[in-house]
Amino acid sequence: MIVRAARFVSWITLPVTLVLILGGIYLSKLNGDIPGAAGVVVNVLLGLVLLGFVALGVLVVHRRPGNPVGWIIAGAIVTAVASDFVQSYGVYALYTEPGSLPGGAVMALLSTLMFIPVLFAAPALLFLLFPNGNLPGRRWRVVLWLVILTTCTTMVSGALDPKLDDAPFKGVVNPLGQDPPRTLIDTLSTIGWPGMAASFLLAAIAMILRLRRSRGVERQQLKWIAATAAVLPFASAAGIISYYLGYETVGGLLATFSFVPVLFAAGYDVLRYRLYDIDVVINRTLVYGSLTVMLALLYFGGVAGLQRLLSPVAGQDSQLAIVASTLAIAALFNPLRRRIQDFARCRDVLSALPRRKVRATLDTLARRGFPRLPDPWLLLPEALLCSRPW
Questions:
Q1: Residues 288-333: pLDDT tens digits?
Q2: Which stretches are transmembrane (predicted)?
Q3: What's the domain range around 355?
């Protein structure tokens, strides 16, 4: 009965999300936030992507009804879509057509509170419970409760603030009409925000420890989510910097969509579809990322150095340095790519082999009278470079 009810609720999320997306686009168009037909098309495509993520969460719920990962995926996207809708509603009711719709201040308050669990609680819970829906151990219950309590504390501090402090509703009077002591609000905020950051960090540590202890399918699942989560710190830092520089929209998009690949990887992993492709993805990312950085450094360094050397002969505006650097990069591309790929493959093989067990076996054979064999790890890189099947 409970499983049927859960599946029924999960299917309701799809039409609800569709209505919220269409309503948000319509209100944003009335507010003037979407310029022209091209803006509408972009927002519709973005809405379809978000709807696809909700469908992914629903699919995980149906395939793995006892695993909360599907609910986290669907809940995070639905909450983000609802937050965008209530923000557009609040802007229309308070600024575009004041008084035309009821509850504008309430919607403004909700829009400032609903994004907090999306940005902090959802990824932290995903890191703690992925992939089987259980904590890594009983001791991690403290971290789980820390995530829940600090998120609630932060939301309560925002709900008690007499005036809203986030764009586009900065200065709007809180509709709850409360006027608590300022020290209480500051104390709750001081506990909530750093507490959420600490709980998020501890949840990431839990995922890393689980990855180190995992084997087989679970290890491949955790590799996917760890690879996508590696983007989060950089995107979050860029979003915070953009926000404080005055680019609130850019900061919000970076903070929101940096978490989307993690959701996709989580759903992809729980369904266990082509898990072992992650080794190819990581290898190619390392190879071509390192290759791009090296070639860029060689190119710009070559251009700058050759221009300085050739300026007495060919002049400052000569294109000879650019042509020579381009030809050098074209000649070095394949050799560098092979070297980096060889290094990445050797590293993967060396990290995967049970080094201690092989050494113990060789020592045992030597004690029993067999001739001592050379350490295979000293010969493996040479063998890989000589055979190179890739």
A1: 666 676 777 777 777 677 677 766 666 655 567 667 777 777 777 7
A2: 9-28, 40-61, 68-86, 106-130, 142-160, 191-212, 224-245, 251-273, 285-306, 318-336
A3: 280-387
For residues 242 and 327, give the distance between their C-alpha atoms in angstroms, rounded to a whole number: 38
Residue 246: which H helix or E strand, with range? Answer: none
How far is residue 301's CA from residue 116's CA, in Å, rounded to a whole number?
45
Does residue 319 fall inside a structural domain?
A: yes
Q: Is 67 left (phi over 0), alpha (psi -120 to 50) or beta?
A: beta
Phi, psi angles (nearest 5°) of residue 163: -130, 140
Judge whether 250 lies within some domain.
Answer: no
Q: 16 lies in a domain?
A: yes
**171's tokens:** 């200065």
CA angle at 260 for the pair 226 and 87, rounded to the nearest 5°: 145
- In this structure, are residues 150 and 138 in contact, taking their beta carbons and an 8 Å threshold? no
Backbone angles phi, psi at 389, to 5 degrees: -80, -5
Last residue of a domain, one of 36, 69, 102: 102
Look at residue 304 and tell me if it is in a domain: yes
DSSP at 375: P
CB 57 within 8 A of CB 266: no
Residue showing tokens 């959802």: 122
HEC profile for 100-114? CCCCHHHHHHHHHHH
**Which among 102, 132, 159 is the end of a domain?**
102
Alpha-carbon separation of residue 198 from 35, 191, 254, 359 (angstroms): 40, 11, 21, 41
**Number of structural domains, the chain?**
2
Give 12's pLDDT tier (boundaries 50, 70, 90). Answer: confident
